[in-house]
Design a protein that fits this description.
The protein is an alpha/beta fold and 237 residues long. The protein contains six helices and ten strands.
Length: 237
């Protein structure tokens, strides 16, 4: 159980992918609660089920079995229209690759998503929160990898999401740049109260989480609380 009120409650979640007669079991009987405002790290090797679990929490995929509750809403009973509305209103996504539109400036890339939510954050505020105000009129090709990732985070948080889901956000970055990106995610979690779930295979990053969920072979192997969170600037890997 989590100390904070539960935002997500997953029970008995399984996921099987089928291609013809071949079945691949991605998740097996996963039980997990995530509290409001928590910082959770999903840790495990490639193929352990991390991305599948994140995609289910984000409404990008649905489980083959079990239930996933978001507050009082049952995501496993939602149709595609309801899942689309859920993603638009409540979830910000950050992936390893930035998915920016090359022909748009930083400000234009961030502003793109403001039309799909009711009460977006001012675009310039989102850009300022990731430390890119001086670069807001630059195009992606004029930015470093870390700056592009911070644009992706600004684009995610401008919606004022309740949840920020990050899949290997530092995977394509060097050590120092990765720490800058993690600092932004930690800041969003702490200052805005946004629930953050971060996938990584890097055990060092787990030191900044409230709890670490270890996955292997599609199962949760263990969940560890972290009473001594460290700042991203103090991480070493």
């Amino acid at each position: 159980m989590t100390a904070a009120p539960a935002l997500f409650r997953a029970h008995g979640v399984g996921k099987v992918y089928r291609t013809g007669e071949v079945e691949v079991v991605a998740l097996r009987d996963v039980d997990l609660e995530i509290g409001r405002g928590e910082f959770i790290v999903l840790l495990g090797p490639s193929g352990s089920g991390k991305s599948t679990l994140l995609n289910i929490l984000g409404g990008l995929d649905v489980p083959s079995s079990g239930t996933v509750m978001f507050g009082e809403d049952d995501l496993t009973r939602a149709d595609e229209s309801a899942l689309t509305a859920y993603r638009r209103r409540h979830v910000g996504f950050v992936f390893q690759f930035y998915n920016l539109i090359p022909s748009l400036t930083v400000r234009e890339n961030v502003a793109l998503v403001t039309d799909i939510v009711d009460h977006p954050m001012p675009v310039d505020e989102a850009i300022d929160r990731v430390g890119l105000t001086p670069r807001r009129d630059h195009f992606p090709a004029q930015l470093s990898g870390g700056e592009q990732q911070r644009v992706a985070i600004a684009r995610a948080i401008v919606k004022r999401p309740q949840v920020l889901l990050c899949d290997e956000p530092t995977g394509a970055l060097d050590y120092q740049t990765g720490k800058l990106v993690l600092e932004v995610i930690a800041h969003v979690n702490e200052e805005l109260g946004t629930t953050a779930v971060v996938i990584t295979h890097n055990a060092a990053i787990a030191q900044m989480a409230d709890r670490v969920v270890y996955l292997g072979d599609g199962r949760i192997q263990r969940v560890e609380s972290n009473p001594r969170k460290v700042k991203p600037s103090d991480l070493s890997w």
